[in-house]
Specification:
Length: about 70
């Protein structure tokens, strides 16, 4: 937070998605994933608000389930 962040959330925490939704007022409008693992991309998709964007830059790899309404 000293660097200007409004909040710091551990993406590995069991309540990470709920905390992100709470901090963003319902979901993320934009997420840039620099890891690209299945878990980090899934978290980004899970917390994206309707109309939100997820950009995956990392090449770690894995699998992601994307809900049909997101397509």
């Amino acid at each position: 937070q000293a660097a200007g962040a409004a909040a710091a959330i551990d993406g590995r925490a069991s309540d990470a998605a709920d905390r992100i939704r709470a901090e963003t007022g319902g979901g993320s409008w934009a997420t840039v994933d620099f890891v690209g693992s299945g878990e980090t991309v899934q978290l980004a998709v899970d917390v994206a608000t309707k109309g939100g964007r997820v950009v995956v830059v990392g090449l770690f790899g894995g699998e992601v389930a994307i809900p049909t309404p997101f397509l």
